Amino acid sequence: MTESQIEHTVEPVDSYRAIRVDVPKNLDNIRVILVESQEPGNIGSAARAMKGMGLSRLYLVNPCLPWDAKPAWYMAHGAQDIVKSCQVVDTLEEALEGVQFLVGTTHRKRGPRLPPPVSAREAAKAVAAVSQEGQVALLFGREDLGLSTHQISRCQLTASIPMATKNPSLNLAQAVQVFTYEVFLASIGDIPPIELQYAEINDIEAFLNRTINLLKRIGIAPYNEQWETFMMSLRRVFSRTRLEHRDIATLDMIFSTANRYIGRLQRQLEEQD
Amino acid sequence: MTESQIEHTVEPVDSYRAIRVDVPKNLDNIRVILVESQEPGNIGSAARAMKGMGLSRLYLVNPCLPWDAKPAWYMAHGAQDIVKSCQVVDTLEEALEGVQFLVGTTHRKRGPRLPPPVSAREAAKAVAAVSQEGQVALLFGREDLGLSTHQISRCQLTASIPMATKNPSLNLAQAVQVFTYEVFLASIGDIPPIELQYAEINDIEAFLNRTINLLKRIGIAPYNEQWETFMMSLRRVFSRTRLEHRDIATLDMIFSTANRYIGRLQRQLEEQD
User: Fold this and answer.
1) Model-level pTM?
2) Shortest Cα distance from A67 to chain B (angstroms)?
3) What is the ipTM of this complex?
4) Please, where in chain B does CATH 1.10.8 lie?
5) Mean pLDDT of all residues belonging to chain A
6) Among residues B182, B180, B140, B3, which one has the least CA distance to residue A44?
7) Do B17 and A146 touch (CB under 8 A)?
């Protein structure tokens, strides 16, 4: 009998309880996104962890099917409303609709083009601050693979849970528990309001695509034609600086002006031919 | 099909990973005690949570049988060594052998004779400080009932996880995760060494029993003969003040002198009859 063949039951016991604290309103602005979760039980456990920490908005990107098998409801244990109202989408982009600040959870020390992760506690402070006014998402990768480099490159901040072991691993739901716990605690403290109007992640991505098209048009070619890598470098510059809407408007104005100028030059060249 | 009849599998996926931090030595002085755990899976999950946070000493007081069923090993996922080396005992007293500082985890706002719990984070600071030199235990009650009033009254400190919901509940393993995470983080900070030599819990209890016997001898009778309640009041005074060995020696000297004095008086009275 291999490990994966083992079946087991977990009693629906009421478990550990704790004192209640009033729920800060900023928590309504925070969503948890689980990417390609492989276990309904983990989805339910994550919902339960969220519930206790005042979060309610769960997004599942391309989850295992059926994602809402019995263990999802069973492990939710009192947080079935979160499972019921969760948004199931095909792509990360759909889950990011309206999101202005994206925090990726990761074990990686750092990627080739990625800054090192901050601690969960430090990230929670940023999440609590930004969510006073803006939409924030916590991103969790699939159980066996974590977040892809592409997914991480979409995040403005990456965060990690400090651990003691050589090959540290946490169950997905336990990671959600620690992060949401830190976000909850950071949120019940004194949070200075943020006045910036962050641009939405998807708006930034659309802007980057417009930029790439412009760059292609003027003949820029990245090393070995690795546009994806080149895009990551651009994201590092533009996505992680916490652009405001007006920043994008400004940059867009510059690039679209350049675009039009190039267009005029090209038309003039054609007319001369 | 009822909830308790549902069987489900959880893939042995490697899950969420995190950056590694060097393990502080004080963590060797901290044990986790699970009282009457009802689910082998919870025991395994608790072991996994401990492992990631640098703890290794697990005690099971009167657990479900067989406590080491497949789910215990399965859910441990990389922390099977902790399950293998755990101490299974019949009574809390056995699990407290050598312990000088006992922290109980609870949801109760406060008991009739108990001070209100501190937060998990605050408790973790105390645990990190005391464990620099002394033996510390974190005590978790059974899934459905939590710790009994008697068990809580044995603790020098009670601690709770702040939560957002009206009927807050955490899975036992998630509670262990949050507490051990806080203890780990508190331990990797700057911890001032503690110079006090705390008495062991069991020594304090033995001292209290000697005291009670003396009080009975001199005719003290608590209201309604509720000795257990009276004992709790005494524990609150003596157990929660973090007595040192020498404190107990001093108190014992006083009480044993009183005891001998009473004995002499009684003998003199008998001789006069």
Assistant:
1) 0.77
2) 13
3) 0.73
4) 201-272
5) 81
6) B3
7) yes
